[in-house]
Amino acid sequence: MRKRLALLAVAALLTLTGCAGAGALGAGANTLVIAIVANPQMNDAISLSHEFEAVNPGVKLKFVSLPENQARAKITASTATQGGEFDAVMISNYETPQWAANGWLENLQPYIDASAGYDPGDFIPSIRDSLSYQGSMYAVPFYGESSFLAYRKDLFEQAGLTMPEHPTWQQIADFAAKLDNKQAGVAGICLRGKPGWGESLAPFTTVANTFGAQWFDQDWNAKLDTPEFREAANFYVNLVREHGEVGASSAGFSECGTRYGQGQAAMWYDATVMAGTNEDPESSKVVGKSGYVAAPVVKTEASGWLYTWALAIPKVAKNKQDAWKFLQWMTNKEFVQTVGKTYGWNRVPPGCRFSTYRIPEYAEAAKAYAQPTLDGIDAADQRKVMTQPVPYPGIQFVGIPEFQDLGTRVSQELSAAIAGQITVDEAIEQSQEYAQTVGDSYRETK
């Protein structure tokens, strides 16, 4: 039943996105086709891929690099329908255990065990476990993250404000109001408003969690119209409307990264991986000006998420041995060294391997954010970030197949509220209907 619902969710997602399979990509017999998300760290890997080809003669790499929402849709469509377009795909800890259970992914544990020096014990346990199913890894992490808050130390000092190490969301809202300077083009805070279950829904759901909200209760009753969820939605929408970035309803991770790096926001709440970009002189005008503190809370001990972009091999891939060689190259200890020496240590993929944090050059470059990143990943536990038990895995997502469709629909309602097209109450009313339909399907199978 769950696998059938997963396929139905994929069909619904394709209807929403208009996404079809990759089709004939023109790859030769010795060409690996890699579907990858177009984030900065992945772009660095693409630029270094000639080094893989140099030590693997006869193997060529072809990357299908897409923005996050498009990449998710295309990869999901190809993998779920066993289209066979890709030899390796970039997915996350949301998809990995579900797709492994469905039989859509190759079990990587035999490859890992046979690869001398790969050292899977070096992976941070929570990251490794999130990519495992029944004790075996089905994807290997490229980078790992939680979420935290970046803030401009210089602007805080000028305003006579002090950021606590563990702020509350009310404190952040107060700071945003005081630091918002529309005349100077500086928003009080940058928060994602772009539709997508992995875009605006990621930070928003952590806010909902710490306000005491939940998507479903233990009996799969939808809980989006509760006072807690309603309060969280009003808080998030009002904060970004009043003191957020211009065009917030279409701003995602990349857009907020650009604005913060260009000095156009006093604070930014998002993925811990943002810090490398903030501190990169090639892309940021605020290098050395940021502090990093724990994800803000309301009723919980912590509120940061747990996420990892990882690489997997579809079960139907035809060239699995060469695909594993690529996965091994892109996720081993040596790759971290290559990135650091080539592009600078702030661009190293973080949050996966303990050994990364023992590299002296990285420790120096990342001294402002390395420990907050590790602390966030360590604290990313449902028991710490939620006030009530829930029947699903995940923190910033609901770990069920239907969430790709459900989360996207709810995010569209939230984005419309941010844009002022509908009220928060209207967004919640419609979102509750979407969620209840999903909850009903789970209650029927209990």
From TrEMBL:
Keywords: Signal, Sugar transport, Transport. This is ABC sugar transporter, substrate-binding component. SUPFAM superfamilies: Periplasmic binding protein-like II. Residues 1-22 form the signal peptide. It comes from Amycolatopsis methanolica 239. InterPro entries: Bact_solute-bd_prot1, SBP.
